[in-house]
């Protein structure tokens, strides 16, 4: 996924099917300069982490 799409998804306010390491995730925010996204697994909102945007898969 690219930074612009990740940022768009984070601002939609609706669920979009996105995965990180085969796990459904929610994108909280995107750091364009770092190319990272702040995410958490849908089944564990307390497990927040920053990951490279290009490791996120939509669909």
TrEMBL record:
Keyword entries, A-Z: Sporulation
Cellular compartments annotated: Spore core
Superkingdom, natural source: Bacteria
Induction: Expressed only in the forespore compartment of sporulating cells.
Family membership: Belongs to the SspH family.
Protein known as: Small, acid-soluble spore protein H
Species the sequence originates in: Metabacillus bambusae
Taxonomic lineage of the native organism: Bacteria, Bacillati, Bacillota, Bacilli, Bacillales
